[in-house]
Amino acid sequence: MDGKAYVASLDDGRSVYARGEKVSDLAAHPDFAPNIERTRHTYDRFEADPAAREAFFTPPTTVEGMREHASLHVDSATHTTYSSLMTLLTAADRIAEVRPSASEAVQAYVREVRAKDWRIAECITDAKGDRSKPPSQQDDKDAYLRVVERRPDGVVIRGAKLHISLAASSHELMVIPTKAMKPGEEDYAIACAVPVNAPGVSIVNVLNGAPPEGSDPRDFPFANQRAVPQGFVIFDDVFVPQERIFLDGEVKQAATFAHSLGLWVRTSSMISMCDGFDVMVGLAQLIAEANGLERVEHIKTKISEMVIHATLLRASLEASMMHAAKLESGVLAPSEIYTNAGKYHGAANYMLMVRHLLDIAGGSAITAPSMRDIENEDIGHLVRKYMGTKQSIDGAYRTRLFHAVHDLTTSAQGGSKYAGLLLSGGGLYAQNIVTRMRYDMDRAKQMAFDAMGWSPDDPGAIRP
Ligand SMILES: Cc1cc2nc3c(=O)[nH]c(=O)nc-3n(C[C@H](O)[C@H](O)[C@H](O)COP(=O)(O)OP(=O)(O)OC[C@H]3O[C@@H](n4cnc5c(N)ncnc54)[C@H](O)[C@@H]3O)c2cc1C
User: Fold this and answer.
1) pLDDT for residue 240
2) Residue 463 has pLDDT above 70, yes or no
3) What sign has the CA pseudo-torsion 348, 256, 157, 16?
């Protein structure tokens, strides 16, 4: 598809809600238009350069390929589609033993998605009801998405998936269990693909991190590019044909998809966090220079701390690629331990970056007048005069830097960004578990004994 065909393809009868109303023209709606426009742009770019499309979507088989992929900048929907395809391919390898047909179904589906040039949204997080109880013991049995009917030609599913980024402007919903399931929870062990416009699917949206309505785009440089509609996706008895089912009842493998997805989503998240941290360092340096403080010791120390944090995060990303595991299909999957430890460390310490950036910038980071005030005929010249710091630093320039700091840290966009870093791809706890699982604890224990000069078999003995 080119961009025009993509926009036209969204007019397919899908049931989308926003601001309390049903949306009739998605591409024209202010909550969706900016993201649709960005995705349209990627379609046009790939249409003009099919080799770039191939390079982006082809699963990496070399570390250089992974690195090249990490350096390609595309819109979020296209990124999500890539991580969905990689999730399915990775999981298919892993579940082939319990469901041999899954591998074939996944391969066929991936081929179809590529041929039709669709975009996929990732539907994992269930409503979950009472968090202390498993799916089968919930008061409302639909708290986790489940199969409510099995027919010879497919299944009927019911439930809801929450916080689904860009669901409304995608073509397909990749539906997978959010967690491991136990015997007795077979109906919840369902993974499948559902078209966004399938009968029974409704998506209620909230635009996350949007700039205030009517604001000057120059005052919100990030919110204007990055506000994302999050979908509350309801599956009200949706029929899924056999060929689109990847798991149905195999409880042992219910978590396989979520684990695979976690890896690819956290890798994507790390890539964007690495770039984001460099942006924050650059902004801290620019604002320090604009304030005339770039040579002051405590400012330099704070920027150095930010640099160290950004560099260690990039080192984790590099390590995740250098230690990538080769799947049976030959595809390289980033190392789980480096991806999860890096994602955890970056997200858990994100506020250090925010703290230093705000501390370096000063109060104007949240009180700088609008660019429209600077252009006001009566007062603008005075605002500009007092926002300037010296001959080489114009007030308008410094004001725009403050707006960028504000929008990265304390605006609705800044807050959403932080929540997204912490929670998307599973909360910090999820990364905590995987890192610990992949860590070689026996080796660490042995090293501890060695360092103390003990033999674990004979604690009384002293080794030379
Ligand atoms: C911006 C954004 C984008 C997102 N995009 C997507 C998306 O595209 N697709 C998708 O599927 N999901 C998406 N998510 C959802 C995200 O993965 C979840 O928010 C995350 O997994 C946490 O789940 P929850 O929000 O239901 O919170 P909860 O599960 O309620 O978790 C809240 C806290 O309770 C803890 N907790 C929960 N249950 C237990 C338990 N049984 N025992 C101990 N501790 C527990 C958690 O560890 C966490 O600390 C997105 C989230 C955000 C914020």
Assistant:
1) 98
2) no
3) positive
Q: Mark 259-294 as b/e (b = at least 16 C-beta within 10 Å).
A: bbbbbbbbbbbbbbbbebbbebbebbbbbbbbbeeb
Nearest CA to ligand 1 atom 11: 124
Does any domain span residue 420?
A: yes
3-state secondary structure of 192: strand
**Alpha carbon distances (Å) from 347 to 283, 344, 352, 427:** 19, 5, 10, 10
Q: What is the pLDDT of residue 331?
A: 84
The protein residue whose alpha carbon is closest to atom 7 in ligand 1 is 164
Higher-pLDDT residue of 289 and 327 is 289
Q: How confident is the model at residue 71 (pLDDT cuts 50, 70, 90)?
A: confident
Beta pairing, strands 228-241 & 201-208: antiparallel
Single-letter amino acid code for the residue at 228: V
Find the 208 Cα to ligand 1 centroid distance in Å. Answer: 16
Query: How do residues 139-174 score in pLDDT, each as one tens digit?
Result: 999 999 999 999 999 999 999 999 999 999 999 999
Which residue is closest in CA terms to ligand 1's atom 24?
125
Counted domains in the chain: 1
Which residues are bridge partners to 416 per DSSP?
Answer: none
Instruction: Render pLDDT for 182-225 as a digit per residue (tens, 0 to 9).
Output: 999 999 999 999 999 999 999 999 999 999 999 999 999 999 88
- In a mutational test of the pocket of ligand 1, which residue from 83, 125, 128 has the highest number of ligand atoms less than 8 Å from its CB? 125
Q: Which pairs from 135-144 meet CB under 8 Å and 24+ separation?
A: 135/181, 135/185, 135/188, 136/182, 136/184, 136/185, 136/188, 144/177, 144/178, 144/188
Atom of ligand 1 nearest to the CA of 128: 26
Q: Rounded to an integer, what distance in angstroms lies between the CA atom of residue 401 and that of residue 397?
A: 7
302: domain CATH number is 1.20.140.10
Which atom of ligand 1 is nearest the CA belonging to 121? 8
Closest-CA residue, ligand 1 atom 33, reads: 427
Distance 143 CA to ligand 1 centre (A): 14
Asked if pLDDT for residue 464 goes beyond 80, the answer is: no
Q: Is residue 59 part of a domain?
A: no
Residue numbers of the domain that contains 279 = 256-443
- Which atom of ligand 1 approaches the CA of 419 most closely? 53
List residues near ligand 1 (CB under 6 A). Answer: 122-125, 128, 131-132, 161, 163-165, 208, 230, 419-420, 423-424, 426-427, 429
Residue 437 covered by a domain: yes
Asked whether residue 238 carries a pLDDT value surpassing 80, the answer given is yes
In a domain, residue 375? The reply is yes
Note the pLDDT of residue 330.
Answer: 83
Integer Cα distance of 275 and 434 in angstroms: 24
